[in-house]
Amino acid sequence: MAHNSIRVQELMKRINNQLHLVDFYQAQLHQAKASLRTVANSSPTVVPISVLPPEIMLRIFKFVIGAQPGIIGKGKDRLNIQSVSLRFPKYPDLLSHVCSHWRQIALASPALWTYIDLAHHDLLGQKLVARAKAYITRAHQSPLDIRVVDLFSPSVYAPPADIDDLNILLPATPIRSLELVTYHGFHESHFITLEHCFEYCAPGTLKQLSLRRANSQGDSNIFLGSNESPPDPNNASVQLYISEKRLEDLWAEINVLRLDGLYFRWTSKAYHNLIDLRLGSEFWGPTIHEAEIVEIMKSNPRLRIFHFHLSIVNPLPIDARVTPVHLNDLEVLNLKSMKREHLETFIRWIAPGARRLQLSIKSSASSQVQSFFARSNVTQLRISLPDASSLDHLLRLSPQICVLVIDQFGRGLRTGSLFGAFEAQSAPSPLKSSVLPETIRFEALYILRSQIESGALREIVEKHSIKKLVLWDCSLAQESTSEEYDTFTLAREFLGCQVASECLTHRDPDPTNDWDTPNGLYHWYM
Length: 526
Description:
three-stranded parallel sheet; alpha/beta; globular; 13 helices; 14-stranded parallel sheet
């Protein structure tokens, strides 16, 4: 026992000696690191942030502000609208509190203070108004970007006090963009806000206008106009106490217009000379005569982004000869909520140019849709409710497609159905053998809300050189059984596939949101 005790003491002594050596070497390493940092900071290519010139600091500040999340915070459950809440923006105020030097730079830069956030029926409402007044003063006469949101649901809880002081703008205030997002329809307080902004906006400065409802809850579609014009007898109307000339002159300068639930009369100058026009949503929208939407398209020859989700009435017969409207700059066309019968009558009017086109539609094998594909350069396609036959036809007409999104494919994605469409496309065609590739190659394939047969994924990926594969809210089914498997079982199908892949559940955001979701308050839930 004594011998063992001596050995333990010797071992502990050695351990203590080693610990002292560790402390010694650690101190040496810290000293070496400090010396290296001194040398690095002395390099002419690396300088402390404190000595950067103000113009560089200003660019850094703008980057930080631009990366700031929107005012609407994501709740714990993105499917539950009641979990949504507002968060008070941190920047640029936080930048001005770091040190006196940063504060001096921030306060001397009017462009940092142009982002104005307002909220109706929210506890942050009055605080945001006070913030807006301070920002407008600091912005001087720089064009403002005003964003207004209302999360209040009258059926759930009593509202906080609404904004009691909206006199934040001076006459002839330059407003570059105005955005209003409401979660439960449009109400009187929203029209008061819009009236104030339109009345005090400097002529010729308003370039972007977005008036939207964030979901299907709320009132019917409303048409906004001047009290000098009679209300539309066929639609709900709201009249602002501003002259019609004032409103039309103001709206005529807009080049980005996004309306859902709140519209202007179809003959308004607001629908002229746009580069981005988005009307309605997948929820529901008002009706429009075919002649009216055709005239709107003719008034926007430079249109680049066009979302159209309204119901067309009084169309010409399907076999009538029409002259398509040339939209040579068109890059994004979203018609995915349009019924097939409306799609066939509407799409015949559009003649895109040679630019790469991103298209979202419901599946259709009509001759009008096929003719559109033949005269367009569709490179990104989102197709809803396709079957093998319609998908086959469209792929034959657009061999240049590099991104394909398949949403709610028929009865399932099976080797003999969807895969058959790919096979038909890759086979030589007697009419276009010189242009059709031997094998289709996709940069990315997205499969949404579909049933997939076991083994189909790997075969599709390998045969068509797909570089990125994304599944969302999909299920896996064996050919010999009707049983469906969960997402985690489905994810195992990726094993062995040499491809970047994601397997998402229905509670994850739609992975194609970034296609045409505007940068705004509500980017996460669309």
